[in-house]
């Protein structure tokens, strides 16, 4: 990622804890015409069938990949239970995501505003390189209900992943703008529209 500067697109870093609504809100920005870089989607492609990270992940975690790419459920069980293993996986995945991000920036050099949907924006230090930090946030109970409704999720896994992430309260404090997602989708979309107006006026 480039350093903040006066030239090139203004970069929005969108983040939020598990289930807070990053993907949903990123889609709203995209719908409003803002180019979106989706870090999770890049990871899924690189970990999918024939993906470029398969050899390195198979070497580090034998048996964790197959014809369908990475078995994410199995790998998740392994790495979310062991900090060293998670760090090893991040060491493989994060540099590759960084390269994709740099390419996205080049491809969109003429845009006024672009958005990076980065789940680990604070944890990975990316916050220092964007012009505007936007955090999606909802009350903890809403978050919990949403995440526990996902197939394969358990209260233990949810608590554990939460513990790996910068707390919501801290994210809200460090944000330039907070988008509330504990409200209706329409209200959230209205907040997104209003924010885009504010940010465009600053370009
Ligand atoms: C371990 C993997 C295979 C599990 O995949 P799975 O589809 O089961 O879960 P998913 O990716 O949807 O993640 C579930 C939740 O955990 C969070 N999470 C994922 N990786 C991490 C991490 N390294 N640290 C903290 N939270 C994480 C996600 O943001 C999400 O909220 C996958 O999460 C992965 O490859 N993670 C390492 C890469 C990474 O850091 N990705 C997130 C930022 S790009
Ligand atoms: N106002 C709202 N804003 C955003 N999401 C909402 C809202 N109301 C309900 N939701 C629902 O909450 C869920 C949020 O999930 P989403 O995948 O966007 O979160 P995420 O932060 O990307 O998750 P993860 O960190 O696990 O990848 C979706 O099912 C979405 O439809």
UniProtKB/TrEMBL annotation:
It is found in: Cytoplasm. Belongs to the CoaE family. It catalyses: 3'-dephospho-CoA + ATP = ADP + CoA + H(+). Catalyzes the phosphorylation of the 3'-hydroxyl group of dephosphocoenzyme A to form coenzyme A. Its EC number is 2.7.1.24. This is Dephospho-CoA kinase. The gene is coaE. GO terms for biological process: coenzyme A biosynthetic process. Pathway: Cofactor biosynthesis; coenzyme A biosynthesis; CoA from (R)-pantothenate: step 5/5. The keyword ATP-binding applies. One of its GO terms (cellular component) is cytoplasm. InterPro entries: Depp_CoAkinase, P-loop_NTPase.
């Amino acid at each position: 990622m480039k350093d903040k500067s006066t030239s090139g697109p203004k970069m929005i870093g969108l983040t939020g804890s598990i289930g807070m609504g990053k993907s949903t809100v990123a889609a709203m920005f995209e719908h409003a015409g803002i180019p979106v870089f989706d870090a999770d989607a890049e990871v899924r492609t690189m970990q999918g069938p024939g993906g470029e990270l398969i050899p390195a992940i198979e070497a580090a975690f034998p048996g964790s990949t197959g014809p369908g790419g990475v078995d994410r459920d199995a790998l998740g069980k392994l790495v979310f239970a062991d900090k060293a293993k998670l760090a090893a996986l991040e060491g493989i995945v994060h540099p590759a995501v960084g390269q994709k991000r740099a390419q996205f920036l080049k491809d969109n050099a003429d845009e006024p505003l672009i958005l990076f949907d980065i789940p680990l924006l604070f944890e990975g230090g990316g916050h220092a390189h964007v012009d505007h930090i936007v955090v999606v946030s909802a009350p903890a109970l809403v978050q919990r209900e949403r995440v526990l409704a996902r197939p394969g999720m358990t209260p233990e896994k949810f608590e554990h992943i939460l513990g790996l992430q910068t707390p919501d309260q801290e994210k809200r404090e460090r944000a330039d703008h907070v988008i509330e997602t504990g409200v209706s989708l329409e209200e959230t979309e209205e907040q997104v529209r209003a924010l885009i107006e504010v940010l465009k006026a600053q370009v």
